[in-house]
Amino acid sequence: MKKFIIISVLSTAFAVNAEIVNINGGFEQIKPELGGKISPAGWMVQTKLSRNYNYLISKKPGTFRSGNFGLIVETQQDGRVYFQRLDRMNFPVGKKLKFNFWAKGTGQIYMGFFCFGSADGKPEIFIRTLLNVSPKLDNVEEWKEYTFYIPIRPQKVKDVTYSDLRGRLCMYFPANCEIYLDDLKVEIIDGDQK
Questions:
Q1: Which range is least confidently modeled, 13-17, 147-151, 178-182?
Q2: Contact 157, 127 (CB under 8 A)
Q3: Using an 8 Å Cβ cutoff, are 170 and 113 in contact?
Q4: Of 109, 157, 179, 193, which cross-links 105 as Cys (Cβ 3.0–4.6 Å)?
């Protein structure tokens, strides 16, 4: 009985150190766009930064790993596309973002966040886009799991250090991609946790 209680307490302690961010990463919730296109709910394409791309929420067998839908993204030789979450969130300094997802196809996937900050009572400003990149997918035919991290650190712009960070999660697909993506999960974890 004592072992069970200790294990239960330890499990609870570790569970508290990770915050799962609800992002519709299985792409199961969809929304219609103007012109009849279907998009993942809660996400939008940053059209000012994107060009020569196509994406599709698909329910055809092989285009999703679990559930009923998956995201397919294609970019041309001179193309690129940024997806961003509609909701803003806080990024606590000292923590890190853990990205876990399943993908197949060809190309690379960058994930991270558009970072905004405020300091010394000044208005919030855009600081930079913080991204990490998956290994290059070279015609991967079977679903493969990828995990990477982005430490959340104070950001310095000119002579001002910003520790109060907010922003939107984003995904970036550079040129020459044909990527199938599913089961994206994002967690905010302690800085020393893996």
A1: 13-17
A2: yes
A3: yes
A4: 179
What percent of the chain stands above pLDDT 90?
74
Indicate which CATH number applies to the domain containing 147.
2.60.120.260
Of 105, 103, 110, 111, the C-alpha closest to 21 is: 111
Dihedral sign computed on CA atoms, order 54, 55, 56, 60: positive
Whether residue 190 is predicted with pLDDT greater than 80 in this model: the reply is yes
CB 51 within 8 A of CB 80: yes
Q: Which domain holds residue 171?
A: 22-190
Does residue 16 fall inside a structural domain?
A: no
How many Cα atoms occupy the beta-carbon half-sphere of 167 within 13 Å? 26
**Domain contains 38:** yes
- For residue 149, give the amino acid letter: Y
Is residue 76 within 8 A of residue 175, CB to CB? The reply is yes
Could you give the dihedral angle defined by the CA atoms of residues 104, 53, 128 and 70, in that order, rounded to the nearest 10 degrees? -40
Residues 103-162: tens digit of each pLDDT: 999 999 999 999 999 888 888 999 999 999 998 999 889 999 999 999 999 999 988 899
For tokens 């939107």, what's the residue?
A: 168
Half-sphere exposure of 40 (CA within 13 A, CB side): 31
Q: Using H for helix, E for strand and C for coil, what is the string for 94-113?
A: CEEEEEEEEEEEEECCEEEE
